[in-house]
Design brief:
With 347 residues, this protein is an alpha/beta fold. The protein has 14 helices and 10 strands. It has a 5-stranded parallel β-sheet with strand order 7-6-4-8-9. Strands 1-2-3 form a 3-stranded parallel β-sheet, covered by helices on one side. A two-stranded antiparallel sheet has the order 5-10. The relative contact order is 0.18.
Length: 347
């Protein structure tokens, strides 16, 4: 079953003319991949990475606080599959008094490494998911809502690059493989990261007659909403490897299958950005666990079900049991703002 927040705990949703509408999902990917204008990417964040992928906006919206208020806590950049004691250098040095992370295990790590209080609140993606699951129940005539009521087709996630790491991947071969899938799995849409759009990888899929979607630039505050809605409007997910989209898909109630024999190699664009040997070992272990839990596409029965083991694995990264209600998160905002006012970093 997908994650759902009990309705009694969800925030009130305004359906006035001023209420925000679902973001555009099917705009040209070349447009969606572009970095937004500076005023669209909230520059007011004290710790700039908090604003990446719309994470801060999802938390503020759920708590019912102004989007113009800076997030008063450090949030984990994303899903860290090589968990261990890893905390990014920027997170460890950020001038904020508390850390909000997905799980108690990560809270223990952040408290030790960052030397400040840390608490588990669940991944920001879950707040976007709960928001749209609630909101779209009221938008019964919206095209996206109609698609979510009857999800169909297949969303595919190839390996992707980042701002500082380049992924070498055979997009042309994957496009040819996907084009040969049974029409029973249509529409097949390929979700590409903005860096792959910049590099022109989308052309291989389009030339093979496949649709391509992009959730936006990492500075786009609507990124997390597009990712959520793109997952919800499809019946299943195919992936060439482990990534944050896998536990997010499971949280969204969408089964995940592996496409085997599509390896990627990675190269640094900025020195020091690739993980070290210890982190690589933990990532390999996580990838092995992922391969054991999720069946390869060519060898499975394709019943589109999610096992209890898969759900437990996904929750160990997303922290769904520790998601906060609107009132609880608003209280955490107030406490963190009070701590921030008296924190020694500002003395």
């Amino acid at each position: 079953m997908p994650f759902t927040m009990p309705l009694a705990q969800t925030p009130e949703i305004s359906l006035s003319k001023d209420a925000s509408q679902p973001p555009v999902l099917d705009a040209p990917v070349e447009v969606l991949a572009q970095a937004p204008l500076p005023d669209a990417f909230n520059p007011r964040e004290i710790f700039e990475p908090n604003g990446f992928y719309g994470h801060a906006m999802a938390l503020k919206r759920w708590a019912g606080v102004s989007a113009n208020l800076p997030l008063p806590a450090i949030i984990q950049h994303g899903i860290y599959f090589y968990q261990g004691d890893f905390v990014s250098g920027g997170e460890a040095q950020a001038l904020l008094p508390v850390c909000w992370v997905p799980t108690p295990q990560r809270a223990s790590v952040y408290a030790r490494v960052c030397k400040r209080p840390a608490m588990a609140i669940g991944a920001p993606f879950l707040y976007a998911l709960a928001y749209w699951q609630n909101r779209l129940k009221h938008l019964t005539t919206d095209p996206i809502s109609n698609a979510l009521n009857a999800p169909r087709g297949t969303l595919v996630f190839p390996a992707h690059s980042t701002r500082y790491i380049q992924a070498e991947f055979d997009h042309k071969r994957l496009a040819q493989t996907l084009a040969q899938l049974s029409k029973a799995y249509n529409p097949i849409r390929v979700s590409l990261f903005w860096k792959e759009i910049e590099a022109g990888a989308h052309q291989s899929y389009q030339q093979a007659g496949l649709e391509v979607v992009c959730n936006g630039h990492q500075f786009d505050p609507a990124f997390i909403d597009r990712l959520c809605l793109n997952l919800l409007r499809h019946a299943r997910v195919l992936t060439t490897g482990i990534g944050s989209h896998v536990p997010y898909a499971i949280a969204s109630g969408r089964p995940v299958y592996r496409l085997e024999d599509f390896e990627a190699s990675y190269h640094e664009l900025k020195p020091g950005t690739l993980i070290d040997d210890a982190q690589a070992g933990r990532l390999n272990f996580a990838a092995q666990t992922f391969a054991q839990l999720f069946a390869p596409w060519d060898a499975c029965n394709k019943r589109d079900t999610i096992s209890q083991a898969q759900q437990a694995w996904a929750q160990s990264y997303t922290g769904a049991p520790w998601l906060k209600t609107t009132d609880e998160l608003k209280t955490l905002f107030k406490l963190a703002q009070h701590q921030d006012a008296f924190w020694p970093a500002h003395w």
